Amino acid sequence: MAPTLELPELQYFNVSSPAEYVAHVEINRPDKLNSFFQAYAEAAIVLRLALTLSSMWLELREVFEILSVSPSVRAIVFSGAGAKAFTAGLDVHAATQSGALATNTEHSTLDPARAATLLRRQLLEFQDCITAIERCEKPVICVLHGYTYGLGVDMLICADVRICSDDTRLSVKEVDIGLAADVGTLSRLPKVVGHYSWVKDVCLTARVFGAEEALRVGLVSAVYPGKAKAVEEGVRWASMVASKSPVAVQGTKELLNWSRDHSVHDGLRYTQIWNGAALQSRDVPVAMQAGVKKRKPTFEKL
Q1: What pLDDT does 5 receive?
Q2: What local confidence, expressed as pLDDT, does residue 118 receive?
Q3: Which residues share a beta bridge with 23?
């Protein structure tokens, strides 16, 4: 039985339930290569300094925040709709017309410190929307295909596991539009692949690289022939994870993410505190008894 999901009406994302306790989130702007665009309030357009994010960014955060706490979801597949792209990143054309990349003179008299404060607040909000993927309590597997540029890299490295189709083309594209990547790639990518020379290569040149190179450096776990097969494997992986104890799975994700950003000593101490509570779960004897009796365990919702 697929999970019952209670979500608001969405404009830019599809959310379905392909398997029990599994949610499938799709970026749904295929006619624009699933690119993200910025829409601003009228006052912000006058200043060309955005304080109001588009509903697309906010929808992304809202979806993952809802799924994070939904008892009907234990694992999430994240992909892009259509045949051509996971996402081409930021819709640069839209951004140059009315977004933060627009050329103008209206804000030339604005005090630089105040302009910087407004932009910093905007970046903080952008970063928080993307970080919602990483912050999600449930494991997220990102399934890539076609164009995966700029913001696409920011999002995929927030996922727990990444796989792709053999037609995937990736690029840390930001230097080609005159800026340093600012939504997470420069902070997360070195930790994901652990290969600083390669990271600096792709970030400084914005060169396009393919699925096999992504596999070789550890950016993705596997490459599949075509999007359909990759999505099928993503759902299979998510179903396998969803069959485990949600207490164990969510605890494992939390402890891995914590340990990534702290010392081994701190990670061990945090694990002591976490498992001091989690080991009291009924899931432990249920899982152990199921293993002894060679049957599939059933766990309560979390």
Answers
A1: 78
A2: 87
A3: 76
- Dist CA 108 CA 251 (whole Å): 50
Cα 230 from Cα 224, distance rounded (Å): 5
Answer positive or negative: Cα dihedral of 159, 181, 63, 302: positive
Task: Show the tokens assigned to 291.
Answer: 């293993």
CA distance 57 to 227: 24
Between β-strands 222-224 and 161-165, what pairing exists: parallel, antiparallel or unpaired? parallel
What pLDDT does residue 119 have? 86
pLDDT at 50: 43
Computed on alpha carbons and rounded to an integer, the radius of gyration of the chain in Å comes to: 21
What the block records as the tokens of 39 is: 């829409």
Low pLDDT (below 50) residues in the chain: 1, 41-52, 105
The residue type found at 8 is: P
- pLDDT (tens digit per residue) in 104-116: 545 557 888 988 8
Spatial contact of 129 and 110, defined as CB atoms under 8 Å apart:
no
- Confidence at residue 28, expressed as pLDDT on a 0 to 100 scale: 97
Distance CA 172, CA 209 (A): 10
The span from the CA of 42 to the CA of 51, in Å, is 10
Q: Look at residue 58 in the predicted model and tell me its pLDDT.
A: 92
Could you list the beta-strand ranges (E) of the chain. 13-19, 22-27, 75-80, 85-87, 140-144, 147-149, 161-165, 169-171, 209-210, 222-224
